[in-house]
Amino acid sequence: MKQYLRLLPPVHELQKDRRFEEFLTSFGLTAEQGTKYIQQELGVLRENLLAGKSDVSPAEEKFSELIFSNAREKAAEWNEDRLLRVINGTGTVLHTNLGRSRLSKRAVEHVTRAARDYSNLEYRIAEGKRGSRHDILEDLIKQATGAEAAMVVNNNAAAVFMILSALAKRKEVIVSRGQLVEIGGSFRVSSIMEESGAHLREVGTTNKTHLFDYEDAINEETAMIMKVHTSNFFMSGFTATVETEELVELKNRYEELVFYEDLGSGALYDFQKHGIGSEPHVRDVIAAGADLVSFSGDKLLGGPQAGIIAGTKELIGKLKKHQLARVLRVDKMTFAALEETLKAYVAGGDAVKEIPTVRDIMRNSDDIKRQAGSFITALESRTGDYNVDLLKGVSQIGGGTMPEVEIPTYLAAISHDGMPAQQLAKRLRENRPPVIARIQDEKVCVDFRTVREDEMDEVIQAFIAIAAEE
User: Fold this and answer.
1) Which of 12, 163, 168, 316 has the greatest count of CB atoms below 10 A from its CB?
2) From CA 118, how far away is CA 253, in angstroms rounded?
3) What are the residues whose beta carbons fall under 8 Å from the beta carbon of 358, sequence distance 6 or more?
């Protein structure tokens, strides 16, 4: 192929080609930007010829056609959103890979206003003076949790790091060996503690920790007792843990000792009352006497990614003054989304059901059965290319939350005689918007717990389009 290098069109000739102007117009590019695409594709073609990889006919016009075609493809790819909207047909409500919680309508509207307009993020309107962003949500968090004071950082791992660094640096923090969890992405509580400068003091065994284990570990270097809620795994059998109330009682014997509970998922709605899981209720932990708690904003709370810290006024005051408060602070859009989410909890009643996470977890299986049945009827009326069955199944909470919980649901199980399930699932992912489903017994299964009514037709269209291409 090397002898065909001389047939490659020079850049200046490509710039004179009518297709160059059409390329610029189609993608709204400047001549400089368009030239970079052309140069890039010319370079790729040259490398392929040198490596003997090109299968293009050795003619200048063919080379030019390939260069413009590839340039258009790359420009279109660049213009596509990187962060895509997807339809979650897995039934996993807090799907970490798919962005965890969906925001409520009110939260989305408030985020839009915060992004579009100026705001009083750090401004006291009545006084005409600079304010603190900590003031924006503190009263709402206090009302929702029963705490004396509160603040927000950018995620719960950051909250853990900040609390340990600000209150226990170069001091000992006692924690049960069975609670040293890995929270995802290889981030471990023990590693976060080490990075914070706090000295980890492990007590108990993997499956059993007793109150006397904590008592025996307390010394003059102890700054904190830390309890970590193991929300991302479930251990049963010969186990024992120490309850919050017992650790609070132990802490109260020592004047300077702090008891901090990392709640992880952060349930402000009591799912236990509905027989769903055993996630501790934030308000109950505060009422039991915890000095500090922290939890995520985008898990069971159903809001944006954030780390919420609530506790005593004295300790929260120290955290607000710490240098990490600026390093780990959140932006106006996070505050906006979190504000509307918290308002729903404070209002209570039906307002909480407007939070998609709570709504989807609490959805009645009969309602899901109705939706799945409607989908099956509509799909079968518009194409006969699929075998579709209505099956009973289970949904998961996800997001490292309530791993032992399986919620009854209904699935539309779909197969195509000429296409394996893996291929069909791949084609659904290639749709716009991508439809993410799960595979079960060699069938693509859509769990409508996490599919909105207004997304139904898009899912149907995706299946129809795939069948039409076969």
Assistant:
1) 163
2) 49
3) 269, 302, 352
Distance CA 395, CA 409 (A): 6
Task: Return the biggest CA–CA distance within the chain.
Answer: 87
The residue type at 391: L
Amino acid at 147: A
Residues 117, 122, 125, 130: is their CA dihedral positive or negative? negative
Burial of 310 from C-beta contacts in 10 A (0-12 / 13-18 / 19+): buried
Characterize the bridge pairing of strands 387-395 and 407-415: antiparallel
Distance CA 85, CA 160 (A): 31
Phi and psi for 194 in degrees, rounded to 5? -65, -45
Q: Which residues contact 363 (CB under 8 A, 6 or more apart)?
A: 449
State which amino acid sits at residue 43.
Answer: G
Instruction: Label the pairing between strands 129-130 and 123-124.
Output: antiparallel
Strand partners, 384: none
The half-sphere exposure of 351 on its side-chain side, counting CA atoms within 13 A, is 12
29's CB contacts (< 8 A; 6+ apart) are 23, 37, 75
For residue range 403-428, list pLDDT tens digits in order. 889 999 999 999 999 999 999 999 99
Q: 141 is written with which tokens?
A: 């968090």
C-alpha distances out from residue 147 to 153, 291, 460, Å: 17, 9, 47
Tell the burial category of 276 from Cβ atoms under 10 Å away from its Cβ (0-12, 13-18, 19+): middle
Percent of the chain at pLDDT exceeding 70: 93
Q: Averaged over 376-395, what is the pLDDT?
A: 96
- CA dist 432 and 455 (Å) reads 12
Count of other CB atoms within 10 angstroms of residue 248 = 18
pLDDT tens-digit map of 188-226: 677 787 888 899 899 988 678 899 999 999 999 999 999
Strand 222-228 and strand 172-176: the pairing is parallel
- From its phi and psi, is residue 50 left (phi > 0), alpha (psi between -120 and 50) or beta? alpha
Pairing of strands 307-311, 149-153: antiparallel
Res 424: pLDDT: 98
